[in-house]
Amino acid sequence: MRPLVSVVIPSYNRWPMVGEAVESVLAQSWGNFELIVIDDGSTDRTRGELSRWGAALQLISQSRKGVAAARNLGVSLAVGRYIAFLDSDDIWLPKKLEIQTAFMEENSGAEICQTEELWLRHGLRVNPKAKHRKSSGDIFRRSLELCLVSPSAVMMTKDLFVAAGGFDETFPVCEDYDLWLRIAVARPVPLVPAALVIKRGGHADQLSRSTWGMDRYRVAALQKLLQTGLGGEKRRWVCDVLKRKASILCQGARRRGKEAEAEAYENILAGVEETLDVGRSDSRLCEREGVSPANVAALAKLG
Length: 303
Fold this sequence. Notes:
The protein is α/β, with parallel strands linked by helices. The chain is built from eleven helices and nine strands. About 7% of the residues have low confidence.
């Protein structure tokens, strides 16, 4: 029988945490799924240890390409109607797939949803700050400031993932922020209120701690949105957040003596002002020096 859900776990040097993630999937109360684990060039025991599960999962190895490429590869191999992601440092509670799949099946117009989650830091329960609390439905405006969707809590149709273009593989971090914005700009993201994911943080190799200046990549993602010809109030919201983030990055670069980086962000700020002043519905940011579509990712790596 063809599985209804394809579960994709990307992992890089996460043994034994990835083993716990796999166990949480295989312990689900609902079983019409396939499990695809993408080993992204691990040099630890991951591949050998995961192979003991045999046919219970598909274990695919690739050279180190990053989490975005690993997830994209997993989805390309998936045969399910729905895709559910699980980060290798998180775990699911046993009814996660049962409850979330039922929601998707009962709401025929839904293309994506996410669940609530429990947060652990260094093994201790913590409560998210107010700014991290999830909304349901139209989450676009709140999501401009920071990522409000957790990959481990998401279920979406494969058709939506493909139509949205998947994860941008030029983003080493904030690749999820970028994708959820491209999705949320045009459709609601419902919230299943049950906490069905345990999100574990505080460990040394946590991806969000691996790269300084995360807003560099959020700026690049906001530029991409403007380059799509986004109009109306959503365009103004994006411009307002982009101006604020680019201004802070510009000031920080100047304090560190990174003049070329500061000038690049000044170009972005000038471009935002120009497009707002002339009231165009299409972005001219990509026409300015230093922010062409070909080097948006390079801009994020300055410094």
